[in-house]
Amino acid sequence: MRFPIVPTLALVAILSGGRAAAEQRFPPPDFSPGYSLPVTEAQGAPARADARGYIDAAVLAGALALASYLALGRRSRRGLVLLGLGSLAYFGFYRHGCICPVGAVQNVVLAITDPGYALPLTAALFFALPLLFTLFFGRAFCAAVCPLGAVQDVVLASPVAVPGWLARALGLVPFVYLGAAVLLVATGSTFLICRYDPFVGFFRLSAGLDLTIYGAALLIIGVFVGRPYCRFLCPYGALLGLVSRLSWRRVTITPAECVRCRLCEDACPFGAITTPSPETPPARRAGKTALAVTLLALPLLMGLGALAGRALSPAFAHTHATIRLAERVWLEEAGEVEGTTDQSDAFRATGLALDDLYLAAGALRARFDTGTTILGVFAGLAAGATLLRVSLRRTRRDYEADPALCLACGRCYRYCPVETDRGKRHRKPREAAP
Amino acid sequence: MTARGAISTRAAAGLIVFLALVAAVVAVALHDPIGRRGNRLGRDFAYETKDLRPIPPDLIRYAERAAFDAGLAVPRAIAVDAGDKIYVAGDRAVVWFTTHGAPAGARALDGEPTCLAVGADGTWHVGLGGHVEVFDPAGARAAAWTPHGARSYITAIAAAPDAIFVADAGERLVLLYRPDGAFVRPIGGRDAARAIPGLVVPSPFLDLAMGKDGLLRVTNPGRRKVEAYSLEGDLCFAWGEAGAAIDRFCGCCNPVHLAVLPDGALVAAEKGLATVKVCEPDGALRCVVAGPDLLGENALGCDVAVDSRGRIVVLDPAAKKVRIFEPAPPGGSRSQETGSAHE
Amino acid sequence: MSDHETTPIPRRGFMRAAARAACALGIGGGAAYLVAPRTPGERVWQIDPEKCIACGNCATYCVLRESAVKCVHSFAMCGYCELCTGFFNPSPNDLTTAAENVLCPTGAIVRRFVEDPYFEYTIDQNLCIGCGKCVKGCKMFGNGSLYLQVIHDRCLNCNQCSIAAACPSEAWVRVPAARPHLWKKVT
After folding, report:
1. Which of B45, B47, B248, B275 to substitute to test the interface with C, most C CBs within 10 Å?
2. How far is CA A94 from CA A85, A90, A141, B267, in A?
3. How close is the nearest chain B Cα to the Cα of C73, in Å?
4. What's the pTM?
5. Of the partner residues C34, C38, C177, the one whose CB lies closest to the CB of residue A108
6. Per-domain residue ranges for chain A?
7. What digits encode the pLDDT tens for the residues B63-110?
């Protein structure tokens, strides 16, 4: 994306601010010998070493490899649970859940849109490694590496199936959330995903009341609805879902040939098991009509999305501090509000020109107009793609895990008689060995 | 489990999920990541100056008659010549205005000026950090004096016909020079034998002015006093008390600027709660010119000068304006202040 | 697997493999591209003291219960005043360290006599909560030698600092981890 250069420069001028007028150029008092000035720098502390970030990345890579092995090679639910708890302990409670791959998406976007920001290697690895592993081995990251997923997996006690239509509809939310997060980073507003991270407050054992309630509510929902954040909010999950459609190896319910016993039908708390197509397929004609209607609806959905996005532009724009400031200062100057705020006082103290502020805010607003329109088109496209997937029924002969929805948790393994049978055959010689 | 049991379990789960969903939405809506609610720290943690700001209206006996932009990014010093022309030094220049505030000229300097004095004969003395430069009335540089010490930092100059007084805040001294630049003696240095406690200058503010009684008035901001010295360097008397009351000097390191009215009274400017007041030569408060309602709260310090008609010319460095005050009936300046408070 | 499905599968498999390779290259290459050309190392959060207005948000918006922001003192800028407006109430009864004269709500500033007329002021960071009250007093009357900084052995260096999001003067910046403080300097 290219932005007009002049408003960007004005923005830089606003953001870099004016230096205080009174420069200190003055020697300290002339003390008698015997007094030496304390060292100012001794009050600071060195930044935490880079090494910690690299250790985290190494642990991440190791955990991803182990999770992939446990999910695909060992097919061990117990191993995945243990690894998930380990990840929860390390990435969650020990490393306080930061930086995480979900949030790293924003660092990547910031590095693309802000030339002044250098993407830290750790953030790059946290962003790329789970995607690459998913590309080859499915969403093992979600199963046992992500602390946000692990904490929800722990509380899932009494799963209730979410109706398919509702699950599909809610499944669009992560895409919208991802788009909104990208937009807010690209416009320099905020890191939306980090701001509304539901569980990081638990990991740090300190959060405001509001976010504690938010996180607790998600966990309570998570007792009945499998992993509500992962499935219906997580923007990184949306990316992983896309990538996992291409994965080289992925979870299969059965290690061998499906015997269509239907035992696994209700095994998945995430609604990721697809059932075989009916023996008598619906009329070709009806299918074709549905497909045609959906294809026609796609541009309509995208257009509606664009209109809705454009209409929401002011709301999105309000997340940007400079726009909020400009609006406030404008109202104050027009005499429409009483008094000043810390923000407007701080701006006036910089001595910068009002017009520059308005110019910068105007340029940002234009970016938001464009950005929210694109976001709307994207949301419409996602909705259309979902409809398309519904109408494009592929013939399925077996019970399969939907690659995009399967979180590789391994719960279904023990439901499969073929697996149980294999397990027995594997175990027997071992038991006999001693 | 019976079908009925399964249904009621599902209903209960649905209800709990619904309630939790409502709680989550409300919590997210109430979350305030952008600091809208402020720090919620309470009164003990707020730095409050409200109680210190009000000035009794009957003490305000000056009114702002004119204000104009100095046209400088960092205006630092102001002076008025014998013909009531107003000079402002700042950035890397001296600019001057007619007595009514119309721009009349400008001259670039080699450095950033820190202070300025225009003598009766029209000669300028400009402090440029550590040294003084002398310009003839036409603006041509006549001399550049060598700095007195390694730490010299000149913050004020006063020109008498046969003596030039230079306030050196860096060396914590007043330096007496002859007009030709020959150094005569330091004044105000700590001297137990002569009972001089010494100038305490914690920040780059040290000002002086020649009194009508022939005694040099020097600020001693670290001791919140104005001191009167003879030209021989004897401390004749000093006055000033620390305190928030209007007849005292408030906060640390005040007063910061001085000027002398034609009748000999002193104009003293304070920083922090920026205030300009008029004191009798012996220190008793006569009246207030302007307070923080007009001049603001900052540590920049308003330089002051007085013209031949007794008008007080104030350089407001926060607003980058020159403000001209004239005597007015008590309280008369109120409407003026509110009128121009919103720049 | 039945026979009629064997023919499409290799083609499909090939397409998928190609797409997968492209995707892997895209993710890996993209990340490497973004990292490689500009590697000044890690960045950490810090407060630009010239922009800070000491609003007090640093004390309450940190995700830590005890904020990672503390007051620091640039001694070379300090006037060592007897009457320090960062230490005393705006209108103290007396210039002593008695509690009723003292500004800091947690008593984190230590005043020590050096020699007439100078007093040294140091911050006890274990008591300081980063409210910035003294910063305001010092800036308003004095030299601005007291100011707020992020102390990095306390800071978690969150990806999105929640104080930065709540900062009214956009004073929070990312600085190189090698020089993680923005000390005020006497120039």
Report:
1. B47
2. 12, 5, 18, 64
3. 15
4. 0.87
5. C34
6. 52-276+400-434, 279-395
7. 999 999 999 999 999 999 999 999 999 999 999 999 999 999 999 999
